Amino acid sequence: MKEVTVPAGVSLTELYRQEVGDYPKFFKMDTLSKLGFLLAERLVKDDKDRFTPREDRAVLVFSREGCVANDRHYVRSMEDFPSPALFVYTLPNIVAGEIAIRNKYEGETSAYVLERFDKAQLMAFVREAFQDPLTRSALVIWADCPSDTQWDARGWLMDREDVL
Amino acid sequence: MTKVYVIGEGLLTPLGDSPQGVLEAVRAGKSAIREYPGWPEPYMASLLERSGREHPSFFDHIALQAGQRALEAAGTDPANPRTGLVLSTIKGNVEAIDNEDVSLAVQAERLAAGLGISTPPIVVSNACISGLAALVQGMRMIRSGAYDHVVVVGAEVQSRFIVTGFQSLKALSPTPCRPFDAARDGLNLGEAAAAVVLSKMPGGDRPSAWELVEGCIRNDANHISGPSRTGEGSYKALRAVLGHCTLEELAFVNVHGTATRYNDEMEAIALNRAGLQDVPVNALKGCFGHTMGAAGILETIVSMHACDAGVVLPTKGYGELGVSCPVSVSAKERSTRKTAFIKLLSGFGGVNGALLLRKGGAQ
Fold it and tell me: Which residue stretches of chain B are H helix?
C-alpha cells in the first residue's frame, strides 16, 4: 500500500508545474479535482504501462464537504450569469472522473460523503468495493476542502491483498 | 454469495405515494411535468406539492417520509445495530448554502436520527447514477456480513441552483421530454423521494420477493460532461451484470433515457454492443422527469411492480426512433411473463451503472 498527502496551504499550481506539467486541463478544474488529481499523480506516476486503458482499478473518493467550495463559486455566478464551466464541478464525483480520464481507468468510480475522517470506516467501504470481481486495485482519496485554501488531502493506492 | 432482497419500499412522487398507485398512473400515461416560472427563464419539471408539507427543510422531510414508509413496510427495527443507512442525493439541501452547513453528511445524520438508525450513515453522491450506486452499496454492506438490513433512501429537491445550472448547459427541453424519439431535445428535471429496505432474508409486505443479483459501476474515462461515443462504460457495466442472467429471462432494460441527444444515442450503442437490441427497453423520465439522486431507486421500484403486473411499461413521449441503432422501445405498454430486468443509468463524471434484479431469487 502506498500513501501520499498534499499538505494544506501549498500552491497547487506550483505543485502541478513541479510534478506534472503536461496536462493543461488541470487549470480548468476546481480545487477538489486539483487535489484529487495531484494525489493520484503522486500515487501512480511510476506505474508500468501507465495510460494503457484498464478496468481493474477503481477510483474511490471520500470527503465530508463534497464540492461545497465550488458550489459557492457557482452560486456567485448564478447571481450574474450562471456558469456552465462551474456547474459541471458541482458534483462530488467529478474528481473521480478527472482521475479516470487522465489515467484511462475504465473501472468503477464512486464518490461518498462521510461525517468525519475515520480510517477504519473508510477501509470498510474500500473492502466492500473489492466485491466487484474485476477490481484488483483501488485509488482511494480522502479530499476534504471546505474552501479553496483549506483542505485535508490524503491518498492511498491499494491492492486487493492489502485490504482483504 | 449472500442473497440480497428488497423487503420494503417507500415513495413520494408527484404521481402518488404508493408503489401500486404510481404504477397505475404510469400505465395510464400520466405525467406531472409542467411549466414553472424560473430565474428568470421558465422551465418544465415534475415537482412535488409543497402545500401541507411545510418543513424547515423540504429535502429532509421527503427523505424521512420515504425512509419511514419503507421501514414500516419491511417491519424492520431501525435501532438494531445491524441496520445500516445509505443516502443517495446529488445536491441535498444546496438551496440553503448561504444559511447553513449543507454538507450531505449533515443531511444523512439528520435522516438517520429521524429514522432512529444507530449506525453511521454513508452518502453516495455519484452524479445521476447515485441511486443505482447506493443500491449497489447497500447490497455490498449486507454481503460484507456487517449488516442484516440496509435502508437505501434517494431524494432530490429542485432549486434555482440546479435549474439554472442545467439551463446554462442547455440540457433542458422547453416541452415534455421525448426519450429515444427523433425530435428529442433535452431533459426535464424532477423531484421525488424513494426508499427501499434491503435484507439478507426475503420478507416484508411485498407481494413477491425481488433479489438484487449483481450491480456494476464503470467509467467511460472519456469526458466529464459528455457520454462516450462508443458507450464504453455503459457497455462494460451491462456486460458484467449479463454474466449473471440469460437474455431470455430479461423482461426489459429500464434505461436512463433522459431524452438528451447524446445520452439516448450512447445508451442505444451500449445496448447493441451488449446484444440487447431485441430486449424491450423503456424509460420513465417522460412521467417523472429526471429525479437525479432518487432516479435509480424510484425507477427500480416502479420496474419491480411493472414486472409483478406482467407488463413492460410504455415510454411516455416516445414516437419515432431517433437513435442510430435498433432499440426495442415502445410508446405502448407490452405484456411480459419474464421475471428479471436490468436498471441502467449514466451520469456526469463519465459514470455508468447497471443493476440486475430477479423475482423470487430462482434461476
Answer: 19-27, 58-74, 104-115, 130-143, 160-168, 232-242, 261-273, 285-288, 295-308
